Amino acid sequence: MLSTITIKSLYGLYSYSIDFRPDKHPYRFVTGPNAYGKTSLLRMLDSLYNQNFESLAHVVFDEFILMFNDGFRIDIKQSRVYDEDPESDETEPKKVILQFIACKETGVCESLTWESNVVADEKLNNLTAYLTSHPIYFITDNRLYKGGTGESVGSTLEDAMKDYLRELERDLNTALQQGMLDECVPITEDTYNKEVSRLQPLIDSIVKYELVRRNPIPVYAEEKSSFCHTCIAALDRALSGDVLGRIAALDALCLIIDKYDFAKKHLELSPFFGFRFKAEDDKESILSFDQLSSGERHIMLMNCDILFDVEDEALVLIDEPELSFHLEWQGMFMFNLEELIGVRNDLQFIICTHAPELFGYDWSLSADLLEQYKATCGNGSVNKN
User: Fold this and answer.
1) Distance between CA 298 and CA 310 in Å, rounded?
2) Most buried residue, 63, 74, 223, 232, by most Cβ within 10 Å?
3) Alpha-carbon span 135 to 37, nearest angstrom
4) pLDDT tens digit string along 252-264?
5) Element spanning 340, H or E
6) Do 137 and 310 form a contact (C-beta atoms < 8 A)?
7) Maximal C-alpha separation, the chain
8) Edge-to-edge, what's the strand order for the sheet holding 63-68?
9) Which are the contacts of 183, defined by CB distance < 8 A and separation ≥ 6?
10) Beta bridge partners of 317
């Protein structure tokens, strides 16, 4: 996980050092006024992880240093070359030079110089290999502009969820069918009922999401005790591993949406339609994603992205998740985040926000850029980090 970053002379104005404290929490909030560099920080990280050095070169800074909790370090120094003519009013540099140094915990380092408009033949193997193995996912402040479109061109969020649920349905039922090929010894009714009780929350979920056509657990009969044992053993094996994780993600989404209490509507999931919202009116009207409010769509997009799209062990960047949220919903963000972490505990989050309500004004969870700027100006302000 990312441990600390240091930025020197961002836009010639700001210098920050942020400790992400991955040993305490897998998330860190970054606060500060407009134009102090919150979004620029996220864009720099996104450009670096994706090895988009051209984009990184567009951000003005002197030095950008990243430390990871496994001891890996990346140091980037930027220099900008301008027209030497003193009468020139040129504001854009003739070229930008990025000097990379990547060091392993062992102290072995490699360096690379990248120049704008120049194709570099040299490869920085340590850096490229490390970044490739550390995926990143950037949830921007304009995420609604994609209109619920999934990663595939022309795919809607409903379509993406339908594909997800159909694949899960296929995998679950294939595992169940394979498990039914193994005949088990007879089982007592008391033992059978205990096993059914243990699995009942998962049984309720797969029936609720229509992942099975009927309840896969038969009523116990002594003359069929061997068959009953086979059914429960097959279900127990099927509801494990990756299948179990995907069902947990669906449960988390439903729990989060229920907690937010969308106005007069509730969420339904099924392989037949992906997801939909049913209005609490006399006709139980069906509502699509586009018929939700902007705040409701933000919640659906953010949570579906994180639960179903983000790669394992990724760094997740979220810019202004409070968009279109009233104060009550802002105050529920930590519940939302903790539910996500309960399912996706391999992820690390950096969340830039203007709303301290998101983290309940617990400033120990935040790095405040204004406070850091004041501290570097020497006015004696206390840093809330």
Assistant:
1) 16
2) 232
3) 23
4) 999 999 999 888 8
5) helix 333-343
6) yes
7) 98
8) 14-19, 2-10, 63-68, 73-81, 95-103, 109-115
9) 226, 230
10) 138, 350
265-270 β-sheet, strand order: 265-270, 274-279, 286-287
Lowest-confidence region among 84-93, 104-113, 267-276, 355-364: 84-93
Coil, strand, or helix at residue 67?
strand
Sheet holding 136-139, edge to edge: 136-139, 315-319, 348-353, 27-31, 366-368
Locate the domains of the chain by residue range.
2-135+310-376, 154-308
Q: Which CATH number fits domain 2-135+310-376: 3.40.50, 3.30.1340, 3.30.160, 1.20.1050?
A: 3.40.50
Closest alpha carbon to 306 in 145, 155, 136, 69: 136
pLDDT digits (tens, 9 = 90+) for 156-192: 888 999 999 999 999 999 999 999 999 899 999 999 9
Burial category of 242 from C-beta neighbours within 10 Å (exposed 0-12, middle 13-18, buried 19 and up): exposed
Tokens of 174: 């294939």
- Directed axis angle between helix 241-260 and helix 333-343, to 10°? 170
Residue 317 pLDDT level (bands cut at 50, 70, 90)? very high
Query: CA-to-CA distance for 96 and 271, rounded, in angstroms?
Result: 51
Give the separation between CA 383 and CA 363, rounded to whole angstroms. Answer: 10
- Integer-rounded Cα Rg, in Å, for the chain is 26
Q: Are strands 315-319 and 2-10 parallel, antiparallel or unpaired?
A: unpaired
Q: How much is the pTM?
A: 0.88
| Other CB atoms within 10 A of residue 83 CB | 12
- What residues pair up with 301 in beta bridges, in sequence order? none
